[in-house]
Every structure is written in C-alpha cells, then in structure tokens.
Amino acid sequence: PADARRDDVRIVQARVARGRAQLERIASLMAQGAISPPAIMQFPLESAREAHERMESRSFAGKLVLIPPSP
C-alpha cells in the first residue's frame, strides 16, 4: 500500500556482470590463497534432520548437500 512507504529505507539493487575478466580475477585470487570457496558438507538423505539442525544453529557457514541413496 502507498502508506507503507518509508523514507528512512533505501532499496539498493546490485548489478553484477560476469565475464572472463572477473572469472580470471577470482581464479587468480583463489590460486594466491586470498579467497576460498565456501565449505561444503555432505549428508546422506537419512541425516536430513542433522543437516537442518546444523543449518539452523548458524555455526556453519557454507553449503549443505543432501545425498540421496543409490538406486
């Protein structure tokens, strides 16, 4: 609604262009050890509860991946 607008809040939208130069810069920084990819933890699907608890605890920064059982 029109009355929900706030003068003390500003919306900023990031515009990120990805190209060869940016990817080469990221690769260079990674090779130098200046940056690293986020940690990835894998959990079997039957441990989804543990993975979810880990995510909710905020003690983990990175990615959590659930691995389904083999067919």
List the helices and strands and how they pair.
Blueprint (H helix, E strand, L loop, with lengths): L19 H13 L6 E6 L3 H10 L4 E6 L4
Parallel strand pairs: 1-2
Would you summarize the structure shown here?
The protein has helices spanning 20-32, 48-57, and strands spanning 39-44, 62-67. The protein has 71 residues and is α+β, with helices and mostly antiparallel strands.
Any key phrases for this structure?
single chain; flat; 71 residues; two-stranded parallel ribbon; alpha+beta; 32% helix; 2 helices
Form type = flat
Rg? 20 Å
Q: For the terminal residues, how far apart are their CA atoms?
A: 51 Å
Give the strand order of the largest sheet, numbering strands 1, 2, ... along the chain: 1-2
Give the tally of β-strands: 2
Beta-strand share of residues: 15-25%
Helix content: 25-40%
Runs in which pLDDT lies below 50 for 5 or more consecutive residues are none
The number of helical runs is: 2
Major beta-sheet overview: 2 strands, parallel
Secondary-structure element order, N to C: HEHE
Description:
The protein is α+β, with helices and mostly antiparallel strands and 71 residues long. The protein is 32% helix and 17% strand. It has a two-stranded parallel sheet with strand order 1-2. It is flat, with a radius of gyration of 20 Å. The model has no long low-confidence stretch (mean pLDDT 86).
